[in-house]
Amino acid sequence: MKIGLLQCDDLAPSLRQTYGNYPELYERLLRSAEPNATIEVWRVHEGELPEDLLAADVWLISGSKASVYEAHPWIAELVDFVCLLWDSRRPLIGICFGHQLICKALGGVVERSHKGWGLGVSFNQVVKQRRWMSPWQERLGLVVSHQDQVIELPPVGEVIAESAFCPNYVVEYRERFLGIQGHPEFSRALSRDLMKLRDSVLCPIRLREGVASLEAQTDDALMARWMVDFYYHALAEAQSYALVRSA
């Protein structure tokens, strides 16, 4: 499986020295579930986009410090590319910013949350079961780092996992796209160091809660398995659709 990473940011230099940048983080995560996976990177935040929707088997949008409602040309271009992927039924997963950008591209609403920062480990209830979710469990804990949230889903979106803090935490879009608010590629150690970098701009109480939550175990390995299985399921659905159309 060839995964096209649409990279929308770089981690801070001090974090990259210890943990690697987004391509290394996603490669470690996804290869834990699919050892034969390969990743090709397009640095979208620097104006680089694929010229061919078939340049990869499946696609992945990274997180970013940017907000999807900001007026950067590269964000508008990425929205257009996501719409092309949708029309062509090319499988796509979005992480954090990527999750929010999928929502925006398909007609939903993303805003700065009045609840403040999501930090540390988030605890979510899985409310829908899909064939690609194996092994199945009803709870999902992942590292988070976000201020924006998906506020209103487009009609094609369906909530898969939710919490009181983030009601649209994992969203599936008609077996083609998947949005995940959490960061399965982030370890708890990376999360702790990221919060240290931002402690001057974070609410002290929220920061303390976020650091304390890092004592909990996370489900990043499970999420990696679900992501890979979603890709395979979405590819199979797209191929079945193509066969029906050509019959």
From TrEMBL:
<feature type="domain" description="Glutamine amidotransferase">
    <location>
        <begin position="34"/>
        <end position="188"/>
    </location>
</feature>
<dbReference type="Pfam" id="PF00117">
    <property type="entry name" value="GATase"/>
</dbReference>
<protein>
    <submittedName>
        <fullName>GMP synthase</fullName>
    </submittedName>
</protein>
<dbReference type="InterPro" id="IPR017926">
    <property type="entry name" value="GATASE"/>
</dbReference>
<dbReference type="GO" id="GO:0005829">
    <property type="term" value="C:cytosol"/>
</dbReference>
<dbReference type="InterPro" id="IPR029062">
    <property type="entry name" value="Class_I_gatase-like"/>
</dbReference>
<dbReference type="InterPro" id="IPR044992">
    <property type="entry name" value="ChyE-like"/>
</dbReference>
